[in-house]
Amino acid sequence: MKGDKVHHAFRVVYNGIARQLLTECAIALPSATNPLPKKDFHKFKAIWDTGATNSVITENVVKKISLAPTGKINSYGVHGQSEVNTYILDIGLPNHVCIQNVRVSEAKLMGDIDVLIGMDIIQAGDFAICNPDMKTIFSYCMPSHKNPIDLLEKSDKVNKSNHCVPTPIIATSTK
């Protein structure tokens, strides 16, 4: 319909149950300092982390993009607290959305991962993880839809049509 928002989404299907949500992303100098219509984006491997308040980049990204620090913050993570540089940049997501002028901090990440997408970006859209048939499906959409994903509502409807009453279960690890 005319006037409706355009929703940009992507989906990644993993063979097996994924222990990490990995995608490609693109990083460029921030629009605030580089307003050129054609940006020079560089691609990096990213991990999506709902346990991270803010997004993070590695020294490799800083060097490849030639980013200048914009300040310092105290960063709190699994390895304790440290003072780290902050940067402003543009992040291109797999759904072809560019989030402009994102403030990120610098840290070491695992292996060949150079970007951590945190809740500062995740909260701007709809984020879903499903595990049907021992395959993980990860999808993300911006902006959020008006009809949110509601697994309780869906489960209640299925249980009602099957004449089932849920009883407590004990779940085991999938390791």
Q: In short, what is this structure?
A:
The protein is mostly beta strands and 175 residues long.
> Would you identify the CATH H-level superfamily?
Acid Proteases
Oligomer: single chain
**Given this structure, which CATH class is correct?**
Mainly Beta
Summed over residues and divided by their number, the pLDDT gives a mean of: 90
> What distance separates the N and C termini?
46 Å
Q: Please provide the ordered H/E string of secondary-structure elements.
A: EEEEHEEEEHEEH
The tally of domains stands at: 1
**Range of helix content:** 10-25%
User: Radius of gyration, Cα only, in angstroms?
Assistant: 19 Å
In the sheet with the most strands, the strands line up as 2-3-8-4-7-6
Number of DSSP strands?
10
Low-confidence stretches: none
The largest β sheet comes out as: 6 strands, mixed, barrel
What share of residues are in beta strands?
35-45%
The number of helices is 3
Instruction: Kindly name the structural category.
Output: mainly beta
CATH topology: Cathepsin D, subunit A, domain 1
CATH architecture: Beta Barrel
Question: How is this structure best described in words?
Answer:
- By secondary structure, the protein is mostly beta strands.
- The chain has a single domain (8-149), classed as Cathepsin D, subunit A, domain 1 (Beta Barrel).
- The protein is 13% helix and 38% strand.
- It has three helices and ten strands; from the N terminus they run E-E-E-E-H-E-E-E-E-H-E-E-H.
- The strands form two sheets. Strands 2-3-8-4-7-6 form a six-stranded mixed barrel. Strands 1-10-9 form a three-stranded antiparallel β-sheet, with no helix packed on it.
- Strand 5 and strand 6 (80-92) form a beta hairpin.
